[in-house]
Amino acid sequence: MMINTDRKILNSKEIFQKALKEKYAIGAFNISNLELIQAIVEASEEMQSPLILQVSQKAKEYIGNNYLYKLVEGALFSSTIPIVLHLDHGESFDTCKECIDMGFTSVMIDGSKYDFEKNIELTKQVVDYAHNFGVSVEGELGKLSGVEDDISIENIDAIYTDPDKVKEFIERTGCDSLAVAIGTSHGAYKFKNEPKLDLKRLKKIKDLVGQDYPIVLHGASSVLSDLVKLNNDFGGKIEDALGVPEDILIEAIKLGVTKINVDTDLRLAFSGAVRQYLSQNKSEFDPRKYLSAGRNSVKELVKRKIKIFGSENKA
């Protein structure tokens, strides 16, 4: 089954070129249910921002392919902005192939757990298949793992993206964009003390690949303190969570980051609003009420992200 709509889903190359030229980033927001996709699309439409809707393998399994088809169709019919449908962290050729065959316009193949040659081999296999269908491919070089303050210099060199290997990786695989490891990690606990990214490494990578090549930043949620506090004030227990400060994201965009992934912040916004609503309305048990609270919170968060990324009025 293919996603069926009169509106075309774009591949990422079609929206990256403008972003590269005008030096802004596009938010790639993870979806896993109806309310998230409604909030993200409505916010992007109101802000007139191009949008990357991305689905992880686990989220895809959670939603189910048939429901996912219809959610995406609904998003397209309800909006006018450019939308890319992207697979986040595909772990195998078969997973990427399945998504390409069902109508995704962009896929990420994550071969970062393999050695350099195996990563190239796997990424090129996906690229060769995807490009036959006009689908963009994002690769990854380097690993997003650990908390930066616990990593020795030797280990940093082992897991961070090696700038001297980037150009070879891109040339040999043909991938259309590249996720790099410069100190971010997934989840809410990215750092133990002072949040920092290796922006010098990012600059070197960008200088080597050229200003017209898209670089992707994963694990880039800011883990906003007000969202953490909202969760904790209404029954949560999220302690010592630190994300990537918004001013550092702005610096990364200036250095050439074109796509920024956001997932954890969406979860914090949604769960915090739901916790608050249920706590303050103890007799309420209508899911539409508390899920609406979560949706509204995510919508405001996405608007904030779009302003930071600089993609407002770029649709």
Task: Give an overview of the whole structure.
With 315 residues, this protein is of the alpha/beta class. The protein contains 13 helices and eight strands. It has an eight-stranded parallel barrel, surrounded by nine helices.
Number of helices: 13
Sheet having the most strands: 8 strands, parallel, barrel
Low-confidence stretches: 146-154
Q: What spatial form do the alpha-carbon principal axes imply?
A: globular
The string of secondary-structure elements, in order, is: HEHEHHEHEHEHHEHEHHEHH
User: What is the arithmetic mean of pLDDT?
Assistant: 91
The assigned structural class equals alpha/beta
Radius of gyration: 19 Å
Distance between the termini: 29 Å
Instruction: Give the strand order of the largest sheet, numbering strands 1, 2, ... along the chain.
Output: 1-2-3-4-5-6-7-8
Number of strands: 8
Beta percentage is 5-15%
Give the fraction of residues assigned to helices.
40-55%
In short:
This protein has 315 residues and is an alpha/beta fold. The protein has 13 helices and eight strands. The protein has helices at residues 12-22, 34-47, 57-63, 65-77, 93-102, 116-130, 153-159, 163-173, 199-209, 225-233, 246-254, 264-280, 287-309, and strands spanning 26-30, 51-56, 83-90, 106-109, 136-141, 177-180, 215-217, 257-262.
